[in-house]
Design brief:
heterodimer, A: mainly beta, six-stranded antiparallel β-sheet, 25 strands, rod-shaped, B: alpha+beta, six-stranded mixed β-sheet, 4 helices, 21 strands, about 20% helix, elongated
Chain lengths: ~350, ~350
């Protein structure tokens, strides 16, 4: 009797276990058919939707399933791979025309993981690769796989040698050793701009005071303000020259000040000259006009002239915007200068630095 | 009855004299004669002070504000900027082929409130120095000028609008390979000059860097490092300065991007990217920095230089320097030697000191 009861109880127990372990189950869901590695078979539900469950238990598998927005990578092969890098950060902070900034997203990979970066300007019709020197090449060499630190870490680096006014896309893949290379991660895109320059002066006429004995035939109060904006990588330079000495049209002139632009001096004697408030000027000692100054130089007539203001690069994180420099004039005529109206033309030439 | 303002208001309770009040339709109170009200004084003073403060604030704020604008035109908002022109692109770095024709557009924006007549003219240019300065070359010696045609060299741009300048470049079938360079000047045309003043004229230059049909032989270097060294072989302390010169030995221009890899024992390697510069054929560009390493520690530094010329081509150079406080070391060593000598020969030293002090 006892044996029969025990058998019945065991049978009931087994039956209940079978029911319990028919499949993983929650309040509302039950996995009716599942397997490891390649996964279970489709099981249709009463609603007509099919489901599969994938898992890994050490079996080799390279089968992927995907939908429009998702892809699963089951099996040992995919498990051994590095983490797929998310989309990198890809920007143009300096409004540049020939370079763009990227920051690789590590994707929780170990520090010795290496990354390769692909780039395109025609939506992957052509694929190039960012080289180890941050230029673009058609071949992905072993040296072009770099660690996160090698690609600039969280600071990032700039791809150079790009075309202006072009949209680029990049994507990243990773590896942590042999047979661990991932596929390409999601892409990021941004565009280069066009190199541009804005230039202005505050007035195209300068009228000196009447040069008379009361002011010692001198006027040093007039100036021209130069305003420049540009995204040129190496900045810009402004040169000045004049069309000739101040002349009255009757053969009488006021000479140029004698000191050259490369070695301006504190004013002495007579002449027509200029000074600038740019304390970091190319063409000689950077602060030659301002140190111990103001110091003056005379105009030249040969094109394009002498440097009076500049902002050399590299211009990277932000373009130059409304930068102003002031060129001040001084004229001191000899006391025996014949009376008259003396004029000339001063020309400012601004060019981007290449 | 009106009382003049000079009457004295006398308050019998407070006894303080307050002057300069005009009282209308009042009657004299015999009890108030000879006395004045401190409260009224305070009130009067308070009102007067407030008035004075208000007047002072007005004089401080308004006139000085106007003066500042007139005297210190240092910001864009306070300077009337004339002749404001925007040009884009302002730099062309183009690859051309013999026998072909190319068309480019340059957009010119007139940012002024008045129309802008503009002239466009081509000139040749060459580099002037190692810092990228340039000088104009006579037009006849720059073939690129003859190949470039400006569709509309004289423009009239309405106020606050833009126009496109059409540039066509036609390359002859037979042309020497290499680099060709020119600059397009955009010059405003001013109205009739005023004979009583000096004329100031702005010009914007658009740079053309053209390369025609130069084959890239990966076995032939396009450039060479003519100089790479640090200011000294041993530094007492940071900063460390260097100079680098790269020469373009090819037929066309290229952009050089140097990187310095600094290695030292027991420290992480450091990489420095130097500014990228364009080098014209046959020319040299210079990089120099007075403070490459600002906080270097004692040690021997090995420096590897890589200059990227594009498309995987690199130039390599090496140098090294030491950071060691040798001045302090020398002083310390000499001091130590003196101390050791003194201790070793203390009897003689003491005797010498005694003789010096006593004179015997």
């Amino acid at each position: 009797m006892k044996k029969i009861a025990a058998i019945i109880l065991v049978g009931i127990f087994i039956n209940s276990i079978n029911k319990v372990i028919a499949g993983p189950v929650s309040t509302n869901y039950e996995l009716r058919n599942y397997g490891f590695g390649a996964g279970g078979t489709d099981v249709a539900t009463s609603s007509g939707t099919n489901y599969q469950m994938y898992g890994i238990a050490g079996e080799q598998s390279a089968t992927q399933s995907s939908s429009n927005n998702y892809k699963t990578n089951p099996g040992l092969i995919f498990t051994n791979q590095a983490n797929l890098p998310p989309a990198p950060t890809f920007t143009n902070p300096g409004s540049a025309y020939d370079r763009l900034k990227f920051i690789v997203n590590n994707g929780s990979n170990p520090s010795d993981a290496k990354f390769a970066i692909a780039i395109t300007d025609d939506n992957w019709g052509t694929t190039n690769y960012i080289q180890s020197d941050d230029t673009i090449g058609s071949v992905l060499g072993s040296e072009d796989w770099q660690t996160y630190a090698g690609w600039g870490s969280a600071t990032g680096e700039y791809i150079t040698g790009l075309q202006s006014d072009t949209t680029y896309k990049i994507k990243v893949k990773a590896e942590t050793g042999k047979f661990t290379e991932t596929g390409w991660g999601p892409e990021a895109s941004t565009a280069t701009l066009v190199p541009s320059l804005i230039f202005g002066i505050d007035s195209h006429k300068v009228s000196f005071d009447a040069l008379i004995s009361e002011n010692s035939f001198t006027d040093a109060s007039k100036q021209t303000v130069l305003t420049t904006s540009t995204n040129a990588y190496n900045g810009y330079s402004i040169y000045v020259r004049d069309t000739g000495v101040l002349a009255d049209g009757l053969g009488n002139t006021i000479a140029e000040y004698t000191s050259p632009n490369s070695a301006p001096t504190v004013w002495t004697g007579d002449g027509f000259g200029y000074t600038t408030n740019d304390s970091n000027l190319a063409g000689g000692t950077a602060d030659r006009f301002t140190s111990g100054g103001p110091k003056y130089a005379g105009f030249v007539t040969s094109a394009p002239g002498d440097p009076v203001a500049d902002h050399t690069g590299p211009i990277v994180e932000s373009p130059i915007s409304n930068e102003q420099f002031t060129v001040s004039y001084k004229v001191k005529a000899p006391s025996n200068t014949p009376a008259g109206i003396y004029t000339n033309t001063v020309i400012y030439v601004v060019v981007p630095v290449y | 009855m009106n009382i003049n303002s000079n009457i004295e208001y006398r308050n019998s309770r407070h006894g303080t004299i307050i002057k300069n009040y005009t009282l209308r339709n009042c009657h004299r109170d015999p009890d108030l004669i000879g006395r004045s009200d401190p409260i009224m004084i305070l009130k009067t003073m308070g009102v007067a002070s407030s008035l004075l403060l208000l007047i002072f604030a007005m004089t401080l704020f308004f006139p000085s504000r106007i003066l500042a604008q007139a005297d210190t035109p240092s910001s864009l908002s306070s300077v009337f900027v004339n002749q404001l022109i925007r040009v884009s692109p302002v730099l062309f770095n183009i690859t051309l082929s013999p026998g072909k024709r190319y068309v480019y557009k340059i957009k010119v924006d007139n940012l002024q409130i008045s129309p802008l007549p503009l002239q466009a003219r081509m000139e040749g240019f060459d580099t002037d120095d190692e810092d990228g300065g340039y000088k104009e070359k006579p037009g006849s010696t720059s073939p690129l000028i003859n190949w470039i045609k400006i569709g509309n060299p004289d423009l009239l741009i309405p106020s606050q609008s833009s126009r496109n300048l059409e540039i066509s470049v036609s390359i002859p079938d037979n042309v020497e390979l290499g680099g060709y360079y020119a600059v397009l000047y955009l010059t405003p045309v001013l109205s009739g000059s005023n004979n009583s003043s000096q004329t100031v004229l702005p010009k914007i230059g658009v740079i053309f860097l053209a390369s025609i049909g130069v084959a890239q032989n990966p076995n032939v270097k396009k450039g060479e490092i003519t100089e790479f060294k640090f200011g000294k072989w041993i530094y007492d302390k940071a900063p460390v300065d260097y100079i680098l010169r790269v020469k373009n030995t090819s037929l066309d221009h290229f952009s050089a991007k140097p990187r310095l890899f600094i290695k030292t024992l027991f420290k992480d390697d450091k990489e420095f990217e130097l500014p990228e510069k364009t080098i014209l054929p046959g020319k040299i560009r210079r990089w120099a920095q007075a403070s490459l390493i600002k906080d270097g520690e004692i040690g021997f530094y090995n420096v590897r230089l890589l200059v990227s010329l594009g498309k995987g081509m690199e130039l390599e150079g090496k140098s090294s320097f030491i950071i060691f406080p040798y001045r302090h070391f020398i002083i310390l060593t000499l001091s130590l030697l003196c101390l050791i000598y003194t201790v070793w020969n203390r009897k003689k030293v003491l005797e010498a000191v005694r003789i010096i002090v006593t004179g015997k």
